[in-house]
Design brief:
The protein has a single domain, classed as Cytochrome Bc1 Complex, Chain D, domain 2 (Orthogonal Bundle), CATH 1.10.760. It contains nine helices and six strands, in the order H-H-E-H-E-H-H-H-E-E-H-E-E-H-H. The protein is of the alpha+beta class and about 250 residues long. Helices cover about 45% and strands about 15% of the residues. It has helices at about 1-20, 35-50, 70-80, 95-105, 115, 125-130, 160-165, 200-215, 220-250; strands at about 55-60, 90, 135, 145, 165-175, 180-195. It is globular. The strands form three sheets. It has a two-stranded antiparallel sheet. Strands 3-4 form a two-stranded antiparallel ribbon.
Length: about 250
């Protein structure tokens, strides 16, 4: 039994490493918690302007944005670009055949992307936050862009004007596993051209977008969590009363 337990612990210890390798070997940054309405509204605006051109969110309706404090008029005037009605789904006008011709693959639906990318290496929000901030210029790629989280990614950098153009620096370092050999290791980013946003502002905007993607993956998650707390409090009180009632019933027998 002890031998089995040791083997199980060893396997579990390897799991984060496997997930780490699956993400291109780049460590995931922790996504900031930005769940206030202002951040989510800004994230929805960024999503519609920069993501919805190529990606769909076919499980989300525009009218669900009412939960973020927006009314139908605000949704129509500011966010409704790819549909005619507030009750329509968030779909893109780009045809799948065109997407394959331009990018080599159809961009994935983003309805539940924040949940789909969760792994032992980090949450789905951590994955998206790191991914969206680690694009760099690479003229060998068809789109002219590459990414540290997803090497040889087919997606271009949609917000390059805001972040600016960055290049990735790589150095040859000794391979820790094979003496005498070297590995091509990432050594940092170099800002080639400044963007319209500072790095801090770009990180904040990305955090807002990621917060919206996380909310979109489960719009009722905050209600679920609040109800969960209420249920746990009720069960705690009920358990205490049941325990005291049991003590009262069995007092004479004892």
């Amino acid at each position: 039994m002890k031998v089995f337990a040791k083997k199980l612990i060893a396997v579990l210890a390897l799991v984060p490493g496997l997930a780490f390798a699956a993400e291109g070997g780049y460590p995931l940054d922790r996504a900031p918690e930005r769940n206030d309405l202002a951040s989510l509204q800004n994230g929805a605006k960024i999503f519609v302007n920069y993501c919805l051109n190529c990606h769909s969110a076919s499980a989300m309706r525009y009218n669900r944005l009412r939960d973020l404090g927006l009314n139908d008029e605000q949704i129509k005037n500011n966010l409704l670009f790819s549909a005619d009605k507030v009750g329509a789904m968030m779909t893109t006008a780009m045809r799948p055949d065109d997407a394959r011709a331009w990018f080599g693959a159809v961009p994935p639906d983003l309805s539940v992307i924040a949940r789909a990318k969760s792994s032992p290496a980090g949450s789905g929000a951590d994955y998206l936050y790191t991914y969206l901030r680690t694009f760099y210029k690479d003229d060998t790629r068809p789109t002219g862009w590459n990414n540290m989280v997803v090497p040889n990614v087919a997606m271009p950098h949609a917000m390059w004007q805001q972040q600016g153009i960055r290049a990735a620096r790589f150095t040859d370092q000794p391979d820790p596993h094979e003496p005498g050999k070297t590995v091509h290791a990432f050594a940092g980013f170099e800002q080639v051209e400044p963007g319209t946003m500072s790095q801090q502002d770009f990180d904040t905007a990305t955090a807002d977008l990621v917060a919206y993607l996380s909310w979109m993956a489960e719009p009722a998650q905050h209600t679920r969590k609040r109800l969960g707390v209420v249920v746990l409090i009720f069960l705690s009180i009920f358990s205490f009363l049941a325990w005291r009632l049991n003590e009262s019933y069995w007092k004479q027998v004892k």
